């Protein structure tokens, strides 16, 4: 049987809406309009742009996680490690050497790619819970090395500041936050379109068939181990890119985004939107990160004070609200938000035909 | 020499903590095929329940109050575990991945709620004078709480072995670990055992929370997750579903960790413990003690 990709028929209206949304997102830094508390300030103000850029990058990271997790069915609990490898390699090369921006960027990207390849080549020998545990172990090992400052140059719990000496001028300073914003938007769009493309290729289809039934994929003659290592490596390389852009936005590394807690949050984002769907990870990531950034601001609103204490405690903690939403989604909408909406709005026959 | 003895006893004490959490997780995985990420939070809840009892009077608590705190911690852990099993795990029966995800989410939520009430900063827990004193053993001054932790873990090991080997429910659990479908086919309600085992794991975690509070003399929302990672390591190294394996592995892992953190440099022991997990999973996917649970 020949595997052919059959593109989902996208209605013209969807394309138009998408283009309008992308153009609007690109124009954000030029629009000095008020946001009425939805963001920390007017749309074009650097604070708002930084919040949006962070949301975009972590969303891109969630999409990169969806490739091995949602498409290839590999539940990794160490995805944050590749993100950390990308960001720390980049900052160390920028601060400690004279190689410059471009070279540091490429080396940091390659470092996360190689770390993903090596880790998955080892961990891919196990499956299911075993894979989750080995990636958890490797992820925590990298986290411990960073946070306990074992190699002596990771700055421990304080993290590392990115020196602006070798950083291109266009990314330095508050006034250039719009360029940083555009960089993160390009990253997000790039990762999303790449993920949309690669999951429709022959490679992506084998990932999905491995996820559905590994034995069957093997019986069809596919070396599922190699395909899974490829999925893990692609996810890791993209995560490394996200790590690099993340430190450019924050002006330094964030040691809290290296451990199990962060990996679990990525899992939450993907499951919220719908695993195994690029749009699912995209929507889940945007929703999660927006709420995570802004819920604490909403909890200062006056009506929260009048709520009973248990509700108030929950509302003051973004993670608690998001965790509860996550549990409800797993219980009642196990396909995630996007898949549920899609299934409710598309006639069943179209859905079946749209599959490959 | 006295330093070495102190380190060894401390290491075994730490291992006792790991075992208290891992024992419940091991039974839960063996029977229900769920790796529960929520039991770290259950441990923290037990710790806070104990803290409330110990901190209730202005004077130094007595041994009786410490006993009461242990009971309160165990009860709190049991209640929250029961609610979890009843309302989150049971509706997802047969969807093991979703059950795992739910425990992950619950673990996050419970920890931040604890933090919302008491803050992330560790709270000093008052302890009875008796368990704070140092006991001389072979020339080393060993804090009594470490011996209490070891004794508690041994007691738990005995209770679980008694339950598994000499009670009817234990028989069903052992049979269920071997072959769940067959037990169900014989007309036995495995669901009852699921609830029982999940609650037992919660009771052990809550009890362990009070021991941990005594061990470090603080409680914090993240205290459970700190133990949980090592409990996972212990559980995999010991062979998922094997209690004696978990007991053995917890001592080995904790000793390795404590000794290398002291003699090599701080942090390397944690790294070695984590590395052990990866090595063991790759080299012995079935666990080192017996061919218990197939992972691959």
Structure description:
The complex is a heterodimer of chains A (356) and B (296). Chain A is mainly α. Chain A has 16 helices and no strands. Chain A has helices at residues 12-27, 46-71, 79-96, 101-123, 129-147, 177-198, 202-212, 214-219, 224-250, 260-273, 278-298, 302-305, 309-315, 318-332, 337-345, 348-354. In chain A, helix 3 packs across helix 9 and helix 6 (177-198) packs antiparallel against helix 9 (224-250). Chain A is globular, with a radius of gyration of 21 Å. The mean pLDDT of chain A is 87. By secondary structure, chain B is mainly α. In chain B, a hairpin with a 2-residue loop joins strand 2 (134-137) and strand 3. Classes of the chains: A mainly alpha (356), B mainly alpha (296).
Concise synopsis of the structure shown:
Chain A has 356 residues and is mainly α. Chain A is 69% helix and 0% strand.
Assign the structural class of chain A, choosing from mainly alpha, mainly beta, alpha/beta, alpha+beta, or little secondary structure: mainly alpha
Q: What is the radius of gyration of chain B computed over CA atoms, rounded to a whole number of angstroms?
A: 19 Å
Global Rg of chain A:
21 Å
Beta percentage of chain A is under 5%
| Average of the residue pLDDT scores of chain A | 87
Enumerate the spans of chain A where pLDDT stays under 50 for 5 or more consecutive residues.
none
Number of strands of chain A: 0
